[in-house]
């Protein structure tokens, strides 16, 4: 059993409804973590979910806090949310370099997985912004300087390069279509296990005594439609395999 922290995979929406001369607003809170959480707990892992709105105040500050986990998963949560705690952003008080602490924790033996989304890697309009952080060096891929999203509404088929690699968990056969991903570039010392349209989909590497991995599409809709994340047994095998490889 591994102890897994998933940061992100939640959001709030605020909608304006206009009906002729009148309008009103509605708000909603949504979590997209459930397919991933269910896949990992189903394989015996202990999962803690830190929703996106709690990340600025509650993400682990240092190596001691991170040592409560074997693997940290960042999914659809930008670098600003991790780095800018309320005391730093709202009160201009020096705080912890959380991404630096995460980098050092991986180098000392931890496992890091980044999953794609509008606020992963470089992200929508560059707002995820990991390219200019110390965590960039940890990832098995190079990030683009510009908006890196690739929207593929007709769907893309994964090309599995190393089906026997343990990080893929023994997923067999053709993978269901994915509807988009974050475009990244492989590093020389990384292993690209699967691609989408020639770009890395799953890549892994060693970093010091630790390991890092990426899954550049989503773990939930919209890029990962239900046939992929809800109906396909290979989904749990892939994400379970990634976590288990990262945790050694």
UniProtKB/TrEMBL annotation:
Residues in Putative glutamine amidotransferase domain copies: 3-247
One Pfam family recorded for the sequence: GATase1_like
CDD domains on file: A4_beta-galactosidase_middle_domain
Cross-referenced InterPro entries: Class_I_gatase-like, GATase1-like
Name the UniProt record assigns to this protein: Cytoplasmic protein
UniProt organism field: Amycolatopsis acidicola
């Amino acid at each position: 059993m591994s102890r897994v922290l998933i940061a992100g995979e939640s959001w709030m929406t605020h909608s304006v409804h206009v009906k002729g001369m009148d309008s009103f607003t509605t708000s909603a809170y949504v979590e997209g973590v459930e397919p991933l959480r269910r896949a990992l707990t189903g394989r015996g892992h202990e999962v803690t979910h830190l929703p996106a709105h709690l990340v600025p105040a509650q993400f682990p500050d240092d190596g001691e806090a991170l040592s409560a986990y074997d693997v940290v998963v960042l999914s659809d949560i930008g670098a600003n949310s991790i780095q800018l705690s309320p005391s730093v952003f709202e009160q201009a008080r020096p705080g912890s370099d959380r991404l630096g602490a995460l980098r050092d924790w991986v180098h000392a033996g931890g496992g890091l997985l980044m999953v794609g989304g509008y606020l992963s890697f470089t992200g929508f309009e560059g707002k995820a912004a990991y390219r200019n952080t110390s965590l960039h060096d940890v990832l098995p891929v190079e990030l683009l300087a510009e908006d890196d999203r690739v929207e593929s509404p007709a769907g893309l088929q994964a090309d599995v390069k190393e089906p026997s690699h343990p990080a893929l968990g023994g997923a067999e056969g053709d993978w269901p279509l994915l509807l988009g991903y974050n475009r990244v570039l492989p590093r020389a010392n990384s292993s690209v296990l699967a691609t989408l349209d020639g770009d890395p989909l799953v890549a892994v590497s060693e970093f010091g005594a630790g390991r890092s991995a990426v899954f550049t599409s989503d773990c939930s809709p919209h890029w990962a439609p239900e046939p992929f994340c809800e109906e396909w047994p290979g989904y749990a095998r892939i994400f379970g395999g990634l976590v288990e490889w990262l945790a050694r």
